[in-house]
């Protein structure tokens, strides 16, 4: 399928884990509500790095420093939410650290209701979560295991 025949959304997200083994997640209130990584759509002309800094601040109240790219994930769906076209999401996930701010969602009329620090070992009890969260936590756990 040619790229003009489907919608593409580029998103930038942050994996933020603190010293207490808690992950910072935001509650997505869209068609399938769930916990997800803070982040979102990259605006036209905006870099992925700038987008993740902006999105994390809007969704969590925190200012972050962006580190390395952890993964690029691609998902497809039969239809876009906006138009009657097939849809592809390209999600760039960065490692990030909180460098300022206060926990609290600043987004108005957006897709995020709240943000919380959730202990990684309590994720299963926290409620539904995006596949991206599960994938990244598994990768993080594998990397955190002593050799």
Could you characterize what this model shows?
The protein has 147 residues and is α+β, with helices and mostly antiparallel strands. The protein has a single domain (3-144), classed as Nucleoside Triphosphate Pyrophosphohydrolase (Alpha-Beta Complex). It has three helices and seven strands; from the N terminus they run E-E-E-E-H-E-E-E-H-H. The protein has helices at residues 48-60, 123-126, 131-144; strands at 7-15, 22-28, 34-36, 39-41, 62-77, 87-101, 112-119. The strands form two sheets. It has a four-stranded mixed β-sheet with strand order 4-1-6-5. The protein has a three-stranded antiparallel β-sheet with strand order 3-2-7, covered by helices on one side. The relative contact order is 0.27.
What's the short story on this structure?
With 147 residues, this protein is an alpha+beta fold.
Provide tags for this entry.
Nucleoside Triphosphate Pyrophosphohydrolase, 4-stranded mixed β-sheet, 147 residues, alpha+beta
Quaternary organisation of the protein chains: single chain
Instruction: Bin the helical content.
Output: 10-25%
CATH architectural type: Alpha-Beta Complex
Enumerate the strands of the largest sheet in spatial order, edge to edge or round the barrel: 4-1-6-5
What is the H-and-E element order?
Answer: EEEEHEEEHH
Contiguous uncertain segments of 5+ residues: none
Shape: globular
Task: Give the tally of structural domains.
Answer: 1
By CATH, the topology is: Nucleoside Triphosphate Pyrophosphohydrolase
Mean pLDDT equals 89
Biggest sheet descriptor? 4 strands, mixed
